[in-house]
Amino acid sequence: MERNPGCELDLAWVNSVIVDLPAVKRRADTMGTKRTVKKEWQAAWLLRAISCIDLTTLSGDDTAANVMRLCHKVARPVRGDIVSALGVQELGVTCGAVCVYPSRVPDAVAALKKIGAAHIPVAAVATGFPSGQYSLKTRLEEIRLAVADGAAEIDIVINRERALCGDWQTVYDEVRLMREACGDAHMKTILAVGELGSLANVYKASLVCMMAGADFIKTSTGKEGVNAILPVGVVMCRAIRAYHERTGYRVGFKPAGGIRSAKDSLVWLILMKEELGNAWLNSTMFRIGASSLLGDIERQLFHHAFGRYAAAAELPMA
Amino acid sequence: MAGAVQKGPKGTKIAELFESMEYGPAPESDKTAQAWLDDHSRKLGHFINNEWVTPENRKWYETRNPCTGQVLAATVQGTEEDVNVAVAAARKAFGSWGQLSGHARARHIYSIARHLQKHARLMAVIASMDNGKTIRETRDCDVPIVIRHLYHHAGWAQLADTEMANWKPLGVVGAIVPWNFPLMLLAWKVCPALAMGNTVVLKPATYTRLSALLFAEICAEAGLPAGVFNVVTGPGSMGEKLATHPDVDKVGFTGSTEIGQRLRRATAGMGKKLSLELGGKSPVVVYDSADLDSAVEGVVDAIWFNQGQVCSAGSKLLVQERVFEPMMAKLRARMEKLRLGDSLDKALDMGAIVDESQRRSVKEYVDSAKEEGAEVFQVGAPAGCFYPPTLITNVQTSSRVVVDEIFGPVLVALPFRTAKEALALANNTIYGLGGSVWTEKLPLALETAKHIKAGSVWINCHNMFDAATGFGGYRQSGYGRDGGKEGLYEYVKPRWMGDTKQPATELDMKEFGARDQPSRPDIGAAAVVPEISAGVPRVDRTYKLFYGGAQKRPDGNYSRVVLSADGSPIAQVAESNRKDVRNAVEAAHKGQPGWAKRSGHQRAQILYYLAENLELRRDEFVNTLVQSVGGSREAAEKEVDASVARLFHWAALSDKFGGAVQETQLYGTVLRLHEPVGVVAALAPDTAPLLAAVSLIAPLIARGNAVILVPSERRPLPALDLYQILETSDVPAGVVSLLTGSRDHLARHLSEHQDIQSVWCLAESAAASRFVEHTSAVNVKRTWVDWGRGRDWFDGLQGQGEEFLYHATQCKSVWLTMGDIFAN
């Protein structure tokens, strides 16, 4: 599928955006009550959720040791006997990517290569993550260095200072340059929704990033006060849908921050299916940025496989 | 490490599902519900006096699950005899229940709420199987709303002794509820009825009896005394038996407009209170300033909630022309996502239509639209008693599907150009139950909400309900409110009032008041001869009619002679006929909207001015009263002074009864607006002919209505003289009209007029009361009648009590959602 090339900034479109928060909240609140999946369906959906996880560590104390552990888990996210019991060995389910700070990209690339999982992409956050309050020059250089180190995906942060001032032109121009800097690496644009003030701004930022050539739009860095919440997801999905209707290009979606339970991940999948459709229910179009989610899903799958709940210590930590 | 001791589900299937990512079945277990039915041998009798009652030799009615056709149980087809037993039980229980303290009743209602919570899932499953609505809705909507209603009204019971101190219970309430929300609507009647100290006999709808019977059993478990709440099942005709039962004081009905009209006629003149919550064709107004994606979800809530079998369903979508096509495209795409199936599946949007006959009726409507050239868009529906979500375009105001209530998942969509046109289209209906407005412009939203003529208006949402605010209709959607403090008034009467129940008088509805001119002329011996003063006759006094702000000659040009208290002719007044009524109503409708738009302060100023001018002419009115009534001068002076005081009373209330903020569970504000009823006809009694007339006119105009007053037939002069006051007090044209003549003839034409919103018949006539109530059914107008009983107009409670405010206003709930802040 062709990557979203972006388009000219259409300010008339951006400025026409209207979002009603109470109505969006109602939609979000009923997402998990109007739909559910049970039994084999639930197991399949949970495996699908795993395949969409960008397993993430973004800490000051990250070293090669925990990055390596994370990479092993990305390649083998579910304990082998559970996979066998569910009979899904051939699916070869892995996580969507491993997501680290730029300095840890070489560690991650090396670790995946050593275990024969070099096909799993390494994603790097960049552009002055998480605040973006750095000069454009260094922000762009970060992208180039991370790509040079082997990152196949770059999660950039947008300029919230310009967004809050309504200067969508600059936001657009910067993201355009970032896309250029990414080259063949896929670009996920982090809106940092918790710092945009309103859902209308979230929708506008989504449009501007897609117009600037984002492959994915992503909710949050995980460091803001409000991260991936469903109302935001509803709005971003609607923006993606509108962009697809107008341009024919499909842009991916990545909620990140605060998604911790298996149930949560199912609701996000339901949101994708309901607002966007099955075309978005795979790792090329949908990622979940998470660190502890996988553990809970694995526990649920253990229950599917064996009919009992496992102690956390029985499952391999990430 | 745990071993693979247990065989997992079939792997191939999980792998396939991993690829397809389809939804699977998510069934809610019906095991406990089936066991409840088994426990009752699947044969359920009436529930009277906290016991199952199965009289001998009754027919049985099989209840089926509409989704599967499976027979669930048989319920008894009751008879009149069974109604008698239930009403007697309720009457007996009223003796003690009505005497309980508010606190004691609060404890009982609280206990029901607690017990229902304990059986919440059982109730949700039974309600879903019984009606075919999805378990998601019974679980997340019906049952929680019922529980909320119980708690809220436990509160009203607790506060009854203080908050409703001037009111008392009615006695036995007959509640008749439909099949679309059998449980919720039951609670809407039972909660306020019990809270105010009444006892209840409920007749559930034929299709949906199980949830009501389970509810009754739960009430008994909760310790509700025997006889306080009883359920009788039976055919539709039993509802009328219950309504007309001589020992039933009040009928609370929710259902079709047609049956509501029948009940109105059947109970006319019997001294019963009646509230009707009827049909609707509620508009959803979407402006180009709306969040269209959210509006689409609002439409889903508006018309595909409960398969569209909702009296307040937003079935008429009005979209601003500029965004009409995008809105339709979004809507069609959204419809493709709707899932229909067995109601016990937890991942559905819609279940089955309640019965095949209902499904056929919906289908016929859609077929008729197709024949008229409409574009019909539908998505798939399972075989059986299901009907697909349907969107109809290319229809207009003259299309049947735009006019009629379809009561199914069928939405019609029409474009509009401007807000003014949107309102005209929204209000172009006989109904007035609900409506929603979609825009991010607050001034536009509020103005639209103000002008939609409906009992509930939702801003950027639709079909929100809460126990703390009233739900009910304008126009032919009925009268009375369910919920809120306003809902309590349906289940009480003023403390001073005695028993009003009586057998309906024999009355020939065709003949009553049919005569439109005097049978013989009052000329010759009975004529009014001008007094001779200083050798010349006094200047002739010609009394005319008063409407449109001026004195008018009667259309028929006949007069009737008015006699003094001692029987001598004192004046001739105009004899009104139906054309005078027509003219007065037209004039009233011209004047009323502008009058209602004036501030309360301005209306008060006019009422004070009336008082000022009345007092100025005190002697003149005293003379007329003495002459007309024949009492002492002191008595006449007392009446004029009381009339002046009454004008002051209502001037004071002109700007102090605008409404309230309702404490619902919505994040936002819900307003209760006390809007004027519209054009109200009021028939005055012979007693206190001036004070009574003022007592009728003043509250109506204080609250923004226009009033057409029929002065006492026997003693019209004191009220008729008011037109001189009206003319000099800046009362705008049309706001007050005075029509003299035959009371019964005027009662006929006023209550038959379909553009009169309410008739007050406090003329001390049982026959006129009966006629007015009976005839009001034509357009479901509100009525307030005295069933031939007088009142003491000088008494504060009787002459200017809360009753007057209740009848002079109608409540509108405006749901204002709020919020734009979600993060920093």
Describe the structure.
The complex is a heterodimer of chains A (318) and B (824). Chain A is α/β, with parallel strands linked by helices. Chain A is built from 13 helices and eight strands. Chain A has helices at residues 11-15, 21-34, 39-51, 64-75, 80-86, 105-114, 136-148, 160-164, 168-182, 199-211, 230-247, 262-275, 293-306; strands spanning 53-56, 97-100, 122-126, 153-157, 186-190, 216-218, 252-254, 288-290. The longest helix of chain A has 18 residues, at 230-247. The mean pLDDT of chain A is 97. With 824 residues, chain B is α/β, with parallel strands linked by helices. Chain B folds into three domains: 38-277, Aldehyde Dehydrogenase, Chain A, domain 1 (3-Layer(aba) Sandwich), CATH 3.40.605; 282-472, Aldehyde Dehydrogenase, Chain A, domain 2 (3-Layer(aba) Sandwich), CATH 3.40.309; 576-659 and 671-814, Aldehyde Dehydrogenase, Chain A, domain 1, CATH 3.40.605. Helices cover 41% and strands 18% of the residues of chain B. Chain B has 28 helices and 34 strands. In chain B, the strands form nine sheets. Chain B has a ten-stranded mixed β-sheet with strand order 14-15-16-13-12-17-18-34-28-27, sandwiched between helices. In chain B, strand 10, helix 10 and strand 11 form a beta-alpha-beta unit. In chain B, helix 5 (120-131) packs antiparallel against helix 8, helix 21 packs parallel to helix 22 and helix 22 crosses helix 28 (802-808). The model of chain B is unreliable at 1-9 (pLDDT under 50). Classes of the chains: A alpha/beta (318), B alpha/beta (824). Chains A and B meet through helix 2, helix 3, helix 5, helix 11 and helix 12 of A and helix 1 and helix 11 of B.
